[in-house]
Amino acid sequence: MNRIFPLEQGPPASGPLLDTYGRIGNDLRVSVTDRCNFRCTYCMPAEGLNWLPKDQILTFEEITRVVGVFVGLGVRSIKLTGGEPTVRHDFPKLVGMLREANPDLELSMTTNGILLDRLAGPLAEAGLDRVTVSCDSLMRHRFAEMTRRDALDRVLAGIEAAKLAGLTPIKINCVVIAGTNDDEVVDFAAWARETGFEVRFIEYMPLDAEHHWERAKVMPSAQILDAIDAVHPLVPEGDGAEPATLYRFADGEPGAIGVIPSVTEPFCDTCNRLRLTAEGQLRACLFSLDEADLREPLRSGATDDEIEAVIRKAVWGKWEGHKINHPDFQRPSRSMSMIGG
Ligand code: SAM
Questions:
Q1: Cis before 16 (ω within 30)
Q2: Ligand 1 atom closest to Cα of 133?
Q3: Distance, CA 43 to ligand 1 centroid (Å)?
């Protein structure tokens, strides 16, 4: 990918959030906490991490204000994440504040689902549009091994509660690890057909806190699609102009299959994502080694225009792409739960 604009030119003063490669950032993931009640082996150590002190985490008012600035800059979709967003005290209140300030915003959440049995209703009432629930195995013992929590039944009950509350279409995120749960991809496809859910298979990325990632554990998305297609033929969704990442079932059954091939087929040239960590650091790439601090200006009386300038500069400097497949790849110091996936 070639740079379209020289970096020295600096970001535009108006219009959408543009970077020097011509990409527009209009999808923001907002982490509301670094804490999590699961300990997924590919993400966090069994004993957890050193949680951030409360005063370092953005308040609901700060999150609402900064989201308002992003919306003014053309961001149309906000995904609340973490850590585990539902463990943040009074979380539906934040959703209500965001909805009230931004009636037309697409507002979703990524969750492990364990608290959805009681929170799905309040979250839907507060104005959440839909949920993505992480689920890496449909077998109780394996789910417990991968998440270090024997909670498959509660997660499935949470998904059901989300459906009843209208937090649809429901998406399921499944991290596939070769030699661990790759034998379940066809079962997940059968589940998608039965339930109408969109099951999205995520390639294992080098973002685990314990640095256990290795390339041999990455199950390539192409192989996942082949395995499913052999049993339940798939048809790509979309116009065929780009490699498809979403597939429907050829026989017209409900549900869909998605893949997120970040390692084997990086999609950096069309990446429109931005991430805000729980303590207010803006990351233009999941694998960024640098961050722009929005908390300091938020807390030191900066105007919205001043915060906008910090955001524009950070997005302008977005990398061409992550370097997982380059010999000089450097892992970010933060792991997935501290960034906000
Ligand atoms: N706790 C919430 C959840 O479970 O969805 C939100 C945060 S979690 C960090 C977001 C997503 O990142 C989950 O779907 C999780 O499976 C995924 N994830 C975490 N570590 C990962 C890794 N090393 N590679 C790929 N995906 C990962």
A1: no
A2: 5
A3: 7
